[in-house]
Specification:
Elements lengths: L17 E8 L12 E9 L5 E9 L4 E3 L5 E5 L2 E6 L19 E4 L5 E8 L3 E2 L3 E5 L3 E4 L1 E4 L7 E2 L7 E4 L10 H10 L4 H8 L6
Antiparallel strand pairs: 1-2, 2-3, 3-9, 3-10, 4-5, 6-8, 6-12, 7-8, 11-14, 12-13
Length: 204
């Protein structure tokens, strides 16, 4: 059963899968509630041809602020601008080529999964719908989101919740958290640009 306790099944026409739910991504300090955590709204919809459309929306809760390296809140609003789901896109049927949409930059990372970057999402706002297609039904998998400063990165593991991903029936290698964070930095604006966007940092 997919994500027991998180699923909110819809009425399924002709037995086709149509499910939706929400999952929490915990921040770098393990916080899985309140404004420092992120909420990922997701759906998995199967069409008559047996193709599954996976969609995710990253919700940045009102009140999310930058934290110091010690985890203390500042007065600077925190953004999120990148998201990733971990599964082996090279497994047969796991990923329909050219189906990844929604980001300003969409990257297929092969055995590590799919990556999106998007216009910075301010607190109280949400990302575009990030989608892809697969021939495989869902199982629980890990997701992560990033910006350049704490409380980023956010993740399913170890303190958050998983999201649905295609079931390739293979062991998927997980990139180290440091590698995920470095990848996110490649697609993020410079710290100078961040200061221009949010104002001077109050971090000590």
């Amino acid at each position: 059963m997919l994500l027991s306790g998180l699923l909110c099944p819809n009425t399924q026409a002709q037995g086709l899968l149509n499910e939706k739910g929400k999952s929490v991504l915990a921040d770098v300090f393990g916080t899985a509630s309140g404004p420092e955590a992120l909420i990922v709204s997701w759906t998995v919809v199967e069409d008559a041809a047996g193709t599954y459309t996976y969609s995710y929306i990253v919700n940045n809760l009102k009140g999310d602020v930058l934290l110091t390296d010690a985890g203390q809140p500042t007065s600077t609003p925190e953004i999120v601008d990148a998201f990733m789901v971990a599964f082996d896109t090279t497994a047969p049927g796991a990923f329909v080529p050219l189906s990844q949409t929604g980001g300003s930059c969409d990257v297929n990372l092969g055995p590590f999964g799919l990556f999106w970057s998007f216009t910075p999402v301010q607190p109280g706002s949400a990302s575009p719908t990030l989608s892809f297609e697969s021939d495989l039904p869902p199982v629980p998998g890990n997701a992560s989101a990033t910006d350049s400063s704490p409380p980023s990165p956010w993740a399913s593991s170890p303190d958050g919740q998983q999201v649905p991903v295609p079931d390739p029936q293979t062991d998927v290698p997980e990139p180290a958290p440091a590698a995920l964070f470095a990848l996110g930095l490649l697609f993020l604006p410079s710290r100078a640009a961040l200061r221009k966007r949010t104002g001077p940092s109050t971090r000590t």
